[in-house]
Amino acid sequence: MAHRTLAVVTGASSGIGLELARLAAENAYDLVLAADESLDTVADELRGTGSEVETVVGDLSTIEGVDRLCAAVRSGGRVPELLMANAGHGLGHAFFDQPVADWRHVIDTNITGTIYLIQQLGPEMCAQGSGRILITGSIAGFIPGTFQAVYNGTKAFIDSFSFALRNEIKDSGVTVTCLMPGPTETNFFRRADLMDTKVGQQEKDDPAFVARVGFDAMMNGEGDVVAGWKNKLQSAMANITPAGLLAEQHRRMAEPGSGKR
């Protein structure tokens, strides 16, 4: 049986990443999926669409974890047509109360692992002269993240990085798209210990909707897309609101215990 075109998705065990993997399978891509937890159920589901699915379970905050993923991608001798760098971690509470290992893991997952993966596979995509890269940023990158200071800082980096890389490779045939969601109904808030905050308790966007917005923007070669009209409004307001005021507004949403007031 002939291989179909290949898509790579990180953070594919749940949430936006899982929905991106489903969309790729529906669009007749074979898949290499990566996450830091089991992908067996996901793989079984997606094989039912006719896609070949390979999984890599590992820590994508490490060079070794990303190298394992890249080795799995290259083992079939194929270059990805779609690279969806979606893996990310959050972290709530005051920065001075966060163990070094915890905030390092957020930086190493959201920034180091993400851009290392793109630097490993992106040149091969450029050499083949075609491809789409989708990076999951966040509207959080526009807002100083009181009680999420490190996380929001990593997303500011990713939002900026994606635009710079897009311009660097604009003549390669490969496009870079930054998906910037707002709060989305995923495991993110539980894993980030944010369930006792207003942002943890509020109604959130459907990850299937967010993934569809990002996938379509990627396939259309767009530079960036904010999912949802409320988030579009918030990101627009952030551009004209003083940083100190944004930080105070974020405090009201993310301060521990704010969800119980």
UniProtKB/TrEMBL annotation:
Gene Ontology MF annotations: oxidoreductase activity
SUPFAM superfamilies registered for this protein in UniProt: NAD(P)-binding Rossmann-fold domains
Pfam families per record: adh_short
PROSITE patterns to which the protein is assigned, alphabetical: ADH_SHORT
Keyword NAD recorded: no
UniProt keyword list: Oxidoreductase
Keyword Oxidoreductase set for record: yes
GO CC terms of this entry: membrane
InterPro entries xref list: NAD(P)-bd_dom_sf, Sc_DH/Rdtase_CS, SDR_fam
Top-level division of the source organism's lineage: Bacteria
Family: Belongs to the short-chain dehydrogenases/reductases (SDR) family.
PANTHER family cross-referenced by the UniProt entry: DEHYDROGENASE/REDUCTASE SDR FAMILY MEMBER 7B (PTHR44196), SHORT-CHAIN DEHYDROGENASE-RELATED (PTHR44196:SF2)
Descriptive protein name: Oxidoreductase
